[in-house]
Amino acid sequence: QVQLVESGGGSVQAGGSLRLSCAASGYLLSSCMGWFRQAPGKEREGVANIDSDGRTSYADSVKGRFTISQDNAKNTLYLQMNSLKPEDTAMYYCAAVGGGRCIARGRLAERFYNYWGRGTQVTVSS
């Protein structure tokens, strides 16, 4: 079964905004959740994560521009992206650690995530 489904990707001009959504079960949302991205020819990198207490962490490259949040009533994780730059162009993936309560003191590495969506493409033109 598909447990994480991203949506909201698309093409925007530099300086524009986009909001990504990730449909997830309440079980997964109770754990640590994260957004990752991968551009062609580059390694996948962590963008942002949020833990069970709502603590958030961001990559330096997106801090101040992106906001990760979740709405448990809607079973959805979000990534609000503002002031987009061409270098933000990538496939964006939603991921979950699972296992219930999860505490993240800072950025959480890719290897800790056990559930992944198939991705949604974001393209930012100059």
Describe the structure in your own words.
- This protein is 3% helix and 45% strand.
- It has one helix at 26-29, and strands spanning 4-7, 10-13, 18-24, 33-38, 45-50, 56-58, 66-71, 76-81, 90-96, 115-116, 120-125.
- Strands 2, 4, 5, 6, 9, 10 and 11 form a 7-stranded mixed beta sheet that branches.
- By secondary structure, it is mainly beta.
| Distance between the first and last residues' Cα | 38 Å
Radius of gyration: 13 Å
Annotation field: number of helices: 1
Q: How many β strands by DSSP?
A: 11
Assess the beta-strand content as a share of residues: over 45%
Shape: globular
Indicate the low-confidence ranges by residue numbers: none
Overall pLDDT score: 96
Order of helices and strands: EEEHEEEEEEEE
Report the major sheet.
7 strands, mixed
Class per helix and strand makeup: mainly beta
Estimate the helix proportion, in percent. under 10%
